[in-house]
Amino acid sequence: MTDRAIVSSLYDSMKLPTIVAPMFLISGPDLVIAAAKAGIIGCFPTPNARTINDLEEWLEKIKSELKGTKQEGMWAINMIVHKSYDRFEAEMALVERYKPKFVVTALGSPTRVLDRVHAFGGKVFADVINMEQAKKAIAAGVDGLILVCSGAGGHTGKYSPFSFVEEVRRFYDGPLIVGGAMQSARSIAALIALGADFAYMGTRFIGCPESLVVDEYRDMLVSSSMDDVVTSDVVSGVMANWLKASLSKAGFDLKSKKGSTEIDFSDIQGEGKAWKDTWGAGHGVSATQNIETVKEIVDSLVDEFALLQPNLANELSRWPKFLKDNNND
Predict the structure, then answer these.
(1) CA–CA separation, 192 and 171 (whole Å)
(2) Distance CA 30, CA 162 (A)
(3) Residue 110: predicted pLDDT
(4) Which of 207, 297, 307, 311 has its CA 20 to 30 A from that of 328?
């Protein structure tokens, strides 16, 4: 299957060109299954499963719940490929056994998984936050890129999607997923207009009953706006967006501790890990006005998307005359 064929095939089976981004300590099998059944793709980070046995149970549940349905292949897993991650080999063995169609790599080179995923026919998409990473991933042979832009919840990028997508599209025409402050159908449509193929939407789905978060986290999302999000590397050693109130509650002093944490993903769910008591969110947090199921959010986005075409056509209809008038001056 060619790169563009991957996009066409997914469009045929999706209600919306949107993927629920994998969110650490948030995404689990219920969220992934609900996303697939709602008509989009769900993805979860493998470290969210407390143990390897738990991960196997999660994969078994997803496979069995979606088996025989039109959504059978509409799910993905996200693997940490950083050298400090000590569960990599055990997780890779399960990936080879359960054969997800899509594997997303993060925090390291995708070369660790490429040959092994391609061997069973899976596709590899690499998270990248800059041009250097994008070019290296393409050279390695990934099947698609995920551009993590400024405003993404959790581990974030620093570039605007307007510039990042434009630069990547100058040399790459393969599948392109873009995340960072995605919160509405307008956001999704804007990405498609930019040249992306899919929106990576995470924060909008954190509060769903199908996620793994506690109700206090959900309440904080509902009451928060973009001003309540802070970008810092204090929690994991990697720049990320966090709800300011959760950092304060966990005792972080951003001024004195910023940049003091070394990157270490060994024993990722172990006791004492700083991120256990902190809650991430992106710049699109204000889209969470109340608690909705995954299906309710997707249905709402689909309805909004359907209304965009006539509304945009009406707005854009003014521009040809404007340009023509200017050209006649």
Answers:
(1) 17
(2) 33
(3) 96
(4) 311
